[in-house]
């Protein structure tokens, strides 16, 4: 039996397994954000560590990497949900399951009553109370630069490179990953990247009940102290649905939590390479196609967003390889929030983003009080880009092993 190309169920599992990496036993005591950032051996980077603030708080979260539900003793969450649920439509039902299996659903894509992006690419909700998704960039000749699925444990070489380029990006972090790799998450915000939410466990959101979909976002990024807030001290106001799987029911829940929905227009399919369903060459072709469009004037009146990932060493290496080409093709590469002139990216006011004009004039970060719980600053990396790229290229990739194992399992069933 051959796996169908782009099987949603398989890709859901594949993406998740690629992220599960090392959350089992904490094998070492964490040092500090700065020390973590200095590690150049990807194997060492991805050795799980103990970080007391997270360990001490785990009882207040759903099980890491498992689909979220509201904890029965979490009265704050229950009260928040009771409040938000009043604005969530009850006539939009879950689609398929949380693994993206839609075989049993019959949905009228032509009329698209739910504005279900995954089926129709709809970004303007049918419910007039909801704002449109961010799918493009208002600034001409500009790319909204960002990466999904982090923080990745072996991202130091990639982040070193971004630091050397003075390039900031929007990082869509998964709650479970933030708790697995808190120092890596701290590095991102301390180096000026914008942090948006990417759910608790990275499943298909429209497959959840409304209450569980709320939990997926609540324990990721809500107005209470949850995963990102615990580690970074901030509460995001933006999110990206895994696999782009969003409809008006899920948008209403996100809106209730103050989260702006950010989608994309182009997909590099870098996330798919590890499944073996597409080749590296196809991913490069997708990048090349995006760059060609920038060259032929497609984005002259409105900028764009391409889906790319901090998922594994291939996706990060590809991002490094293509960065100079993107810089050449676009007039500006900026975080999405910067392109939107969203100078207050978090609920808390102690961090801010530069305006678009400030950013392109060279002010890529603004002063902040640095509210992450890190005890030391990451400082500036001393790694060189050449060593950074080399480090990416010779990493072990246990997620690949896990993929192979799981692929055999999926084939078997
Ligand atoms: Zn994702």
UniProtKB/TrEMBL annotation:
> What are the subcellular locations of this protein?
Cell membrane
Which domain of life, per UniProt? Answer: Eukaryota
Tell me the protein's name: chitin deacetylase
Taxonomy of the source species: Eukaryota, Fungi, Dikarya, Basidiomycota, Agaricomycotina
Q: What is its EC number?
A: 3.5.1.41
List the membrane topology term(s): Lipid-anchor; GPI-anchor
Q: Which PANTHER family match?
A: CHITIN DEACETYLASE (PTHR10587:SF98), GLYCOSYL TRANSFERASE-RELATED (PTHR10587)
Enzyme's top EC category: hydrolase
Query: Which cofactor(s) are needed, names only?
Result: Co(2+)
Arranged from A to Z, the UniProt key words for this protein are: Carbohydrate metabolism, Cell membrane, Cell wall biogenesis/degradation, Chitin degradation, Cobalt, Glycoprotein, GPI-anchor, Lipoprotein, Membrane, Polysaccharide degradation, Signal
* Main location class: membrane
Which reactions are catalysed by this chain? Answer: [(1->4)-N-acetyl-beta-D-glucosaminyl](n) + n H2O = chitosan + n acetate
Cleavable signal peptide: 1-27
**Residue span(s) of domain NodB homology:** 141-341
